[in-house]
């Protein structure tokens, strides 16, 4: 899986622990069972990449990288709750049985419970955002809408061998990049940054989120089950054709024709492995990785222009984390090519 998106400085690690504690408190309900279900993926852990972006943006306002204000922590919590709620719903749609190495909520308690618990997490996120002001509340509401739009765009092209690169990019803009963008923007807003820097961090988060999803899609095609920590080739089996697949099909030729003959329907295990092999041999894994590099470069250029920010260490952590994402993906792609 993609590496943690923020190079964690000691003070950032302390703030992320504050996020962890606040996450647990935020899902405590009057009903003990609802608390248990809503806490399930929080207890399973995670990289907390989106909260890290909120903290990183906020930390850029301070030379000392002192602990960020409580409003930043709660803004980070609201974003992570939206992410977690979307995972509950995703697992129902995908009929997933595991998530973060533990049994998924839908597998453990059922689809109805998973849907309602996901709704509860979104409701708690909205309540927290409202406590931070109308701008943050409106921003989070719009982001939830963008997540839905991105996911619907993906569903519209399930098993679609004619899916275009533009359709793919619009989908990941909504379903993934929008939440990184919002995390960064909320961190900047709640830290009281100037509007110029708020907009810069918003763009940075969007660009990084695009790169993050492209890399995630690359690894589903290039990495092993062990490297991913889950079965590889899931997207192909689910009929979700990502950037390397789209470009392989667009290239034409005998192998593209063979790939097209395999796709457009559910695959057997052997067919999935053959489809992966075709894409891996096409050169389009590397092409997609270059697209991710371009997104990261554009993200870095936005923050490089932020000369008026005091906390340059926080900015360096964000841009360094983006570079680390690419280094991890590149190493896996190179290892894949040598096998």
What is the CATH domain class?
A: Mainly Alpha
- The name of the CATH architecture is Orthogonal Bundle
Low-confidence stretches: none
Helix content: over 70%
Number of strands: 2
Structural class: mainly alpha
Structural commentary:
76% of the residues lie in helices and 1% in strands. It is built from 16 helices and 2 strands. β1 (98-99) and β2 (102-103) form a beta hairpin. α4 runs antiparallel to α8 (165-190). It is mainly α. It has a single domain (10-338), classed as Farnesyl Diphosphate Synthase (Orthogonal Bundle). The chain has a two-stranded antiparallel sheet with strand order 1-2. The mean pLDDT is 89.
Notable features of this structure?
339 residues, globular, mainly alpha, single chain, 2 strands, 1% strand, two-stranded antiparallel sheet, Farnesyl Diphosphate Synthase
In terms of topology, how is this protein built?
Elements (H helix, E strand, L loop, with lengths): L9 H17 L5 H13 L4 H11 L10 H25 L3 E2 L2 E2 L1 H5 L1 H21 L2 H23 L8 H26 L4 H28 L2 H4 L5 H5 L4 H9 L2 H9 L6 H13 L2 H21 L7 H27 L1
Antiparallel strand pairs: 1-2
Helix pairs in contact: 1-3, 1-4, 3-4, 3-8, 3-16, 4-6, 4-7, 4-8, 6-7, 7-8, 8-9, 9-15, 9-16, 12-13, 12-15, 13-14, 15-16
In short:
The chain is built from 16 helices and 2 strands. With 339 residues, it is mainly alpha-helical. It has a single domain, classed as Farnesyl Diphosphate Synthase (Orthogonal Bundle).
């Amino acid at each position: 899986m993609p590496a943690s998106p923020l190079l964690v400085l000691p003070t950032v690690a302390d703030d992320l622990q504050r996020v962890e504690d606040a996450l647990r408190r935020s899902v405590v309900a009057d009903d003990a069972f609802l608390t248990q279900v809503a806490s399930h993926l929080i207890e399973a852990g995670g990289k907390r990449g989106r909260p890290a972006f909120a903290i990183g943006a906020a930390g850029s306002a301070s030379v000392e990288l002192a602990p960020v204000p409580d409003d930043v922590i709660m803004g980070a919590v609201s974003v992570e709750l939206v992410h977690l709620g979307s995972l509950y719903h995703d697992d129902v749609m995908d009929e997933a049985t595991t998530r973060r190495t533990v049994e998924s909520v839908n597998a453990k308690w059922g689809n109805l419970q998973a849907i309602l618990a996901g709704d509860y997490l979104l409701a708690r996120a909205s309540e927290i955002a409202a406590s931070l002001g109308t701008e943050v509340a409106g921003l989070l509401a719009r982001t939830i809408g963008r997540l839905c739009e991105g996911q619907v765009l993906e569903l519209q092209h399930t098993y679609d061998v004619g899916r275009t690169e533009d359709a793919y990019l619009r989908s990941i803009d909504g379903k993934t990049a929008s939440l990184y963008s919002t995390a960064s923007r909320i961190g900047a807003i709640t830290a009281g940054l100037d509007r110029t820097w708020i907009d810069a961090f918003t763009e940075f988060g969007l660009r990084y989120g695009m790169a993050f999803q492209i890399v995630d899609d690359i690894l589903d095609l290039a990495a092993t089950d062990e490297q991913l920590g889950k079965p590889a080739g899931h997207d192909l089996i689910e009929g979700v054709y990502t950037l390397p697949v789209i470009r392989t099909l667009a290239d034409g030729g005998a192998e593209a024709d063979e790939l097209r003959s395999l796709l457009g329907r559910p695959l057997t295990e052997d067919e999935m492995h053959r489809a992966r092999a075709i894409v891996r041999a096409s050169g389009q894994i590397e092409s997609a990785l270059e697209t991710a590099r371009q997104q990261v470069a554009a993200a870095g250029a936005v923050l490089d222009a932020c000369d008026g920010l005091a906390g340059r260490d926080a900015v360096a952590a964000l841009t360094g984390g983006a570079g680390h994402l690419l280094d991890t993906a590149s190493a896996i792609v190179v290892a894949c090519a040598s096998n």
